[in-house]
Design a protein that fits this description.
Blueprint: E1 3-4, E2 13-18, E3 21-26, H1 32-56, H2 62-72, H3 80-94, H4 105-116, H5 128-133, H6 139-159, H7 170-173, H8 187-196, H9 202-211, H10 215-219, E4 226-227, E5 232-236, E6 242-246, H11 249-255, E7 268-270, E8 285-287, H12 290-304, H13 313-326, H14 329-335, H15 341-344, H16 352-376
Antiparallel strand pairs: 1-2, 2-3, 4-5, 5-6, 7-8
Helix pairs in contact: 2-3, 3-6, 4-6, 8-12, 9-11, 9-13, 13-14
């Protein structure tokens, strides 16, 4: 066995080579027997790593896989900054030199438990007591920020022909999420929001309400994706899919006057305060940012006195009203770019009145038929 005890260390260390690669480190054991047991387990892990790496012809250390994933596809995500933050979180948690082959279901489950203990982040300085008073992050956040990201790394490595004998059981790792509610905007709420709206943000929110696009799709909309000639907005949407939005007369009326305000991005804001460090000049126009627009939305909503209405509810409001007007689920699915019609079915409750009317018509028809039969007899 290749274990030894350095002079200035209380622990035994291991050091061996396999297929031209060196594996070494501390066993964190103070007895030779335990150290040899640890070293034997490391040899088995090394064999699995080499076997998987041989198939993929690339390193399976999590840090290396993250770099390849980023270079190949992740940097082109709709929210690359958020993607990088999530990837970096995994690297920091596991350690960049940890092989994916070493991450089994038990370690992935511990990762989920660790993430569940995090609290919602808020801007500004807070005392430790105030930090502890913040709510824990939602199950959906845990699922999207660690579990789905780790699964994506495994999926990417498998596409490179890596083989995992102890891959986590993903179905058991995802936490339950409450069924997404559907919230419509009442006329009085819409009026209050309009009255509280900042003039420079008005086109952005009007567009979001008129098209039903997702928040990040609206914020990052570029002029290169807008074609007034074909009356279409063509861009990359959720999951990297190509999506097409029609430019209706109402949407054209919102977008057309914004030309010339920014060379690249459609929606802008007017800086109320200057920032020399960031190069921001008071009174000048700049492209909307994800966090800045979120903050503006929270202020506008609070000023309007509208509660229990998220920005994403603009999309729900759009889908609900469109289905009520058309009565066509397939049409709404296409308009909202849902890959699966199951996502569209959440709006089906608006058809309850139509269903009730149809049932009533059938009942009246049967009653009329029975009356005619009695008359004949």
């Amino acid at each position: 066995m290749s274990v030894y005890k350095p002079k200035k260390s209380p622990f035994y260390h291991y050091d061996f080579q396999l297929r031209g690669r060196r594996f070494c480190g501390s066993t964190e054991s103070t007895t030779r027997k335990e150290a040899e047991k640890f070293e034997s387990a490391e040899r088995e892990k090394a064999k699995k790593l080499i076997k998987a790496t041989k198939r993929s012809q690339t390193s399976l250390l999590i840090g290396d896989v993250v770099v390849r994933l980023w270079n190949d596809e992740a940097q082109y995500d709709a929210e690359p900054d958020a993607t990088w933050t999530n990837l970096e979180r995994l690297v920091n948690y596991f350690g960049e030199a940890t092989p994916l082959t070493d991450i089994d279901h038990y370690k992935a489950k511990n990762m989920v438990s660790w993430r569940r203990g995090h609290r919602v982040s808020r801007r500004g300085k807070r005392t430790k007591e105030e930090e502890r008073a913040l709510p824990l992050i939602a199950n959906a956040t845990v699922n999207r920020s660690v579990t789905a990201v780790l699964q994506r790394l495994f999926r990417f490595a498998k596409a490179e022909r890596a083989v995992f004998e102890n891959e986590p059981k993903w179905g058991e790792l995802y936490l339950p999420e409450p069924e997404e509610r559907v919230r419509e905007l009442m006329d009085s709420e819409a009026t209050s929001l309009d009255e509280a709206m900042r003039a420079d943000y008005e086109p952005f929110f009007a567009f979001a309400r008129a098209c039903g696009m997702r928040f990040k799709e609206c914020v990052t909309l570029r002029w290169s994706e807008v074609n007034f000639g074909t009356r279409q907005i063509v861009r990359t949407g959720k999951g990297g899919r190509r999506v097409v939005f029609p430019i209706t007369d109402a949407i054209r009326e919102i977008l057309f006057p914004l030309q010339g305000q920014h060379p690249e991005f459609v929606f802008t804001y007017v800086a109320k305060y200057g920032n020399r460090r960031l190069g921001i000049v008071r009174g000048q126009r700049y492209q909307l940012t994800y966090n800045g627009t979120k903050s503006a939305w929270q202020r506008i909503r609070t000023s309007a006195g509208v509660t229990n209405f998220r920005f994403h509810d603009y999309r729900h409001d759009f889908g609900t009203k469109l289905l009520r007007d058309s009565g066509n689920l397939k049409l709404v699915q296409k308009a909202m770019n849902h890959r699966d019609i199951k996502s569209t079915l959440r709006y089906a409750h608006v058809l309850d009145e139509d269903v009730a009317a149809a049932v009533e018509r059938v009942a009246k028809s049967r009653k009329k038929s029975r009356t005619q039969v009695r008359k004949v007899v």
